[in-house]
C-alpha cells in the first residue's frame, strides 16, 4: 500500500452562519444575557491591545522619518496626536480586558484551568505577555517624544528590571504552555488539519524580548546594555528558530490540505522574521556606543577582561562595531524578504473573498503581525539609505491604520451582533467529534 495522504476535514469547519456542523447538527443561536456571555470572554481579547499599541508604535516611528520629523508641517502634530490617542486607548483596553477576565474567572471557576490548559484557548493566553511587550515598546517611544530627559533617566532603571522579569516569565510561560499542549487530553488535542502559524503564539513573547531589548538598550549604561543585548538575542533567536520549525510543518499542511478556513491567521507567519529583523538592526545600532564606552575592556569579578576575551584598541573596536552593524543589516535582509513573502502569500489567500463572513477575534491578525513588517521596513530603509523603502513603509503604516479602523469597527459590531462572546463562537469552544454512523 502507498503512503496515506492527509485529506482536509471540512466537516469540522464552521459555516458562514457561525454554525459548527462537526456533529452533523446545526447549533441554534442562544441569545443569552451579558452575564452568560461573560463566560466566553477569552485571552484572545488581548489581540485588540497588541494591535492598538502596535499601530501607535508605527506612528511614533514615522516621526523619525525626515519629512515628518520636524514640527513645522501639519502632519507632525496630527501623527503625534493620533499615535498618543491610540496609546492611551490601548492602555484603557488593557485594564478593561484584564478586569473582565478576572471577573470571568471569579464568576465561572470551572473556566480557570481550561483557559490555560485547553490548547485552542491556551494558545491565546500568550497575548497577555505580548501586550506587555507592546506596551513597554510603545511607552519607550512616546516617553522619548513627550517626557523630559530626567524622567526618562529614572525610567531607564525600571525598564532594565522589567526586561529581566519579562524574559524570565515568558521563557517559563512557553515551557508550561507547550507542555500543556503536548499532554492535552484527546478531546482537546490540536489536529493536523487545524495547523496554523498561530501555534507559535506561546513562544512569541520570548521572541519579542529581542525587540524589548532594542527599546531598552539605548537608555542603559554600556555594561548593562551589553548584558541586555546578549540576553535579548538569546530570546529572539529561540523564538525565531521555534517559528522556523513550525512554519515548515505549516507549509507542508498548506501543500497537502490547501488553504485554512481562517485565512486571517496566515498573517501571523509575517511576525517572526520581521520582528527578528527589527531586533537585529535595533540592537546592532547600539554596538558602537557600547564598545566605545567599554573601551575594549571592563571589570568583571575584579578582573579586567576584554570584549569577548579580546583586548582591542579603539581603532579595532570601531572596525568590529562596523562589522557587527553590517552583518546585522545583511542578515536582516533575508529575514525581511521572508516576511514579505509570507505577507504576499497571506494577501493572495484572501482572493476573491474571505470564506468567513462573521467576525472573530482572529481578525486582529490582519494588524499585529504586520506591525513588525512595517517597523522592520523603516529600519531597513534607514540602514540602506533607501528613500523608496522608507516611503513604502510610510504607505504601509497608513494602510495599517485603515485596516485597524476597519477591524476595530467590525469588533464592536461583532459584540453588538453577538458574532463573538457567545456559545460556540470563541476560543473556549470545543468541537465534538462527528458521530460514527451505525449500520
Task: Sum up the structure in keywords.
globular, 63% helix, disordered N terminus, transmembrane helix, Mae1, mainly alpha, two-stranded antiparallel sheet, 439 residues
Outline the structure in words.
With 439 residues, the protein is mostly helical. The chain has one domain (31-297, 304-416): Voltage-dependent anion channel (Glycosyltransferase). The chain has 16 helices and 2 strands. The chain has a two-stranded antiparallel sheet. β1 and β2 (303-306) form a beta hairpin. The longest helix has 36 residues, at 222-257.
Radius of gyration: 23 Å
Give the CATH class: Mainly Alpha
Structural class: mainly alpha
Q: What name does CATH use for the topology?
A: Glycosyltransferase
Number of domains: 1
CATH superfamily: Voltage-dependent anion channel
How can the largest sheet be summarized?
2 strands, antiparallel
Runs with pLDDT <50, length 5+?
1-30, 299-304, 433-437
Do you know the CATH architecture?
A: Alpha/alpha barrel
- Tell me the distance between the termini: 27 Å
Q: Please tally the helical runs, counting DSSP H or I stretches of 4 or more residues.
A: 16
- Order of strands side by side in the largest beta sheet? 1-2
Report the β-strand fraction as a percent range.
Answer: under 5%
The dominant shape is globular
Order of helices and strands: HHHHHHHHHHHHHEEHHH
Count the strands? Answer: 2
Overall average residue pLDDT: 83
Q: What share of the residues lie within helices?
A: 55-70%
Keywords: Membrane, Transmembrane, Transmembrane helix
GO cellular component, one term: membrane
Membrane topology: Multi-pass membrane protein
Subcellular location: Membrane
